[in-house]
Automatic annotation (TrEMBL):
Protein residues bound to Zn(2+): 4, 17, 175, 179
Organism field: Ureibacillus acetophenoni
Protein name: DNA-3-methyladenine glycosylase I
GO BP of this protein: base-excision repair
Domain of life assignment: Bacteria
């Protein structure tokens, strides 16, 4: 079974690739979690964050924005001493800031999913890349999304982070053509993660 060449032999990475990456996500809380995790990845590898994902869920109350917006300075200090996450004050603070913006967008658009999926007109973009070198790090769409998210108060949402986020939550399917997960290979996973 052929996979995208970036997948390592680590089972956690294989499972992430096979069951999550590129699969459309419409659940508000999962979308918020992935946006925060992609922001945490800035300057690091996704593998680093993926290994810490369960720790992040515990540290940030399973990404329940309503709880996160209540975080005090004491909570921030405890997060800064948590070795299970990336201990970067700006990244930790961005989750709190993003929780506020997330709740605002949820209120304005009926759901965060409505807000975020509107960038791709509510339909996943299926690309047909032959090699991983063909896959862009940013696009005009990720530039636009980044600009709008920043305008709406989000942090750690540069164009590269936005494009990685879109790939992760299935707004964009960038599995290469030879990968068994590419839609042209008749792989269908209706599980909404």
């Amino acid at each position: 079974m052929k996979r995208c060449v970036w997948v390592t032999k680590e089972q956690l990475y294989i499972d992430y690739h096979d069951k999550e990456w590129g699969v459309p996500v419409y659940d508000d809380q999962r979308l918020f979690e992935m946006l925060c995790l992609e922001g945490a990845q800035a300057g690091l590898s996704w593998w680093t964050i993926l290994q810490k994902r369960e720790n992040y869920r515990l540290a940030f109350d399973h990404f329940e924005a309503e709880k996160i917006v209540q975080y005090t300075d004491e909570k921030v200090q405890s997060l800064l001493s948590d070795s299970g996450i990336v201990r970067n004050r700006l990244k930790i603070q961005s989750v709190i800031t993003n929780a506020k913006s997330y709740l605002k967008m949820k209120e304005l658009h009926g759901s965060f999913s409505n807000y975020i999926w509107n960038f791709v007109e509510n339909k996943p973009i299926i690309n047909h890349w032959a090699t991983k070198e063909d896959v862009p790090a940013t696009t005009e769409l990720s530039d636009r999304m980044s600009k709008q998210l920043k305008k709406d108060g989000f942090k750690f949402v540069g164009s590269t982070i936005c494009y990685s986020f879109m790939q992760a939550v299935g707004m964009v399917n960038d599995h290469t053509l030879e990968c068994f997960c590419h839609p042209s290979n008749n792989f269908v996973d209706t599980k909404n993660i």
